[in-house]
Structure formats: C-alpha cells, structure tokens
Amino acid sequence: MPTYPGRIPSKLPHVGTTIFTVMSRLAAEHKAINLSQGFPDFECAAELRALVTKYFNAGVNQYPPMAGIPALREAVAEKIETLYGARYDVEDEITIVPGATYAIYTAVATLIRPGDEVILFEPAYDSYAPAVEVHGGKPVYVQMRYPDYSIDWPAVETAITPKTRAIILNTPNNPTATVLSAEDLRMLEGILKKTNIVVISDEVYEHIVFDGHQHQSVTRFPGLAERSFFISSFGKTYSVTGWKMGYVAAPRELMAEFRKVHQFNAFVTNGPLQYVFAEYMKNKDAYLQLAAFYQQKRDFFLDGVKASRFKPLPSRGTFFQNLSYEAISDEKDTDLALRLTREHGIAAIPVSVFYRKPPAHRVLRFCFAKSEETLAKGAEILSRL
Ligand code: PMP
Ligand code: GLN
Known about the structure:
binds 4'-deoxy-4'-aminopyridoxal-5'-phosphate, binds glutamine, 38% helix, Aspartate Aminotransferase, domain 2
C-alpha cells in the first residue's frame, strides 16, 4: 500500500492499544495463565448454544427493528421491573444494542458537545474518557479514595460546573471491584436534584454482587432513573462476551435522542441473537445464580493465594480480585505485570492504567471468571512469589 500523503490530526492523540489487548496478547505469546482481560474461559450454557442453532435456522436473518425485537424489549422491561421496581415503556424506553461499550459511546455521542464536561471516577474503565474526548468533551475526574475506593460525594458536588452535562457511574465497579451502597446513590440523587445532569450508568456487572449485598441500580431511585441511561450487557450475564450485545433503558426524552444517533451508527443489533435471548431470559436462574457462581470462584481464588505475600483488597462485585503486592516488590504495577507474564507465566492488569497520572498504589487486577483449574494454577504461581 502506498503511504497516505496527507496528515490526519488524531482525535485521540494520547490513546494507544487497550491494556486488555496488550496483556492478552502477551499472555498468549508467553503461554501464561491469563487472568488479565475480563472474560470467562469456560463455555456458556449448552441451552443457549442450542437456541443459537434454532434461531439461525428460523428465517430471522434479516434486519430486526431498530430498537430491538419487541419480545426481547418486553423481557428486559419485565426483568428491570421485577428486580428494581422501575417500569420502562417497551416501545419508547428500551433499546437493544451491540454491547455496553457501544451503549456508553452512543449515550456520550447523544449528549456531549465540544466543551461539555463529564464527571468520571478514577480509576475509570478505559472506554469512558476516549468516548468523551472524541466528541470534544472534557473528562473531569473525581478520585475514589484508596484503598477502599469509596466516593467522596462532596468532591463530586465541587466538580460540578455549569458545563457539566453528564456523569458516568459504574457499579459494581471495574477495576476496583467495589459496589455502591443505597446511601451512595441517595447522595448522588440529592446532588443532581437541582441540575440537568444526565447519568450514564454502566451496570454490566449488575448480577455479580457478593456476600448477600444487593445491587443498587440507578433505576431503583426515581430521582436518578428520571435522568439516567441504564446500561447492561448480555456478554457478562450469560458468559458470551464475544457476542457483543446489551441493552439500554432510559426515559423516553433521553431514549428518543439516543435512538437518533443509534440508527445512523449500528442501526440495528444482531437479529437472530435477540430471539435467542428473548427465549433464554425466561430462565431467571441463569442470572439469579450468577452471584453465587462467581462468589465461589472468588473464594476459591482467595483460598489459593491466602498463603502468598499478596494482600487481597475487598472484592464485593464483578469478576475481579485486586491484590496488593506491597510486601513483594517496589516495581511499578505496569512493570510487574509484564514481568509476571514473561518470567512467571501469569498475566494480570496493572490498575494504574485506569488513571491519567498513575498513583503509587501497588495493585494488580486478576480476573476470576476462569475454570478452577486455571485459577488453581494461577494461585500456585502467585504463592511462589
Ligand atoms: N463496562 C465495563 C465496566 C466493563 O467491564 C465492560 C466489559 N468488560 C464493558 C463495559 C463492556 O461490555 P460489552 O462487552 O458489552 O461492550
Ligand atoms: N472489560 C473487560 C476487562 O475489564 C475487557 C473488555 C475489553 O477487552 N475491552 O477486562
């Protein structure tokens, strides 16, 4: 290919390849146990795969409706109402989308004009700031307090300016594995009351909350639900991250604008898979038992590393366990993550990459959405360090 003769000014000059891609690639190269990128290493349910065969042969392979097939939107509305007590209109307030990342990006595209500010909590999931910056927005960061990663609500209030258009919330949180309490959401509800700020609520781990705690969705709080995009992902809930499907619920005024952008971007979401989920969602146990399933994996992994010199930070939700290595090394987490992969055959995610200015915390994030065999091998390596 000849070289491009012009020059395109980058819209994301500071962005490289995501840490997930980098670490998974390195893990593959070194045949390391990959506890870095967050995805299950086990197969999804056989019933789900059988439904794929059924619906790919059911004559539904052309464009589905722009907002999603009615049966799936109905299933989503019913689920949200049963779990969180909020009723969204099937016609106007629910949209099926190609994944949560897409939903976040589209919500940002819907709301953000050049110069608008968006409040993010740091450490922040890596897609948030670039989505804001591509649209000319400015991320404004509020730090979660290390080591419990709690939120300083007065600091949130201080961060609000007349330019604040949105705030991106993520509970259960990636990468901190913390969950917000009802009190946290009430604080936010109070702070936003007299503003027009919209909440983009990333709740992809809504079903993975541990130790008997309840997931606090924005949809439970009327003062938040009225101004929020609620976003979830089928990928996390059904162990099919490669299918890239999720859904968004929002009040009709917000959703109408969201759909204007969506219809010229993806336009629709994979049709046959929508039929698959519409049927599979009848099996409520599949998501109601997910927390217990992952809690067992968390505890298995924790048990495996308990004699090691790593110190676990609390994992209250998601499928991540953060381990502090303060007793082991002074290295930067990015250096240690590379060294562990290359020299010891285990890959993790350095938590500092989720900050603009890496703090001195010495923490690595390990994904336990893995088979016990993988977790046991990983824990054994960590115990030798
Ligand atoms: N938000 C968070 C916090 C995530 O951890 C992930 C996925 N790993 C996503 C969004 C993206 O979900 P999806 O694959 O449905 O785009
Ligand atoms: N969200 C997943 C993680 O945190 C990875 C998704 C991705 O690779 N973009 O590990």
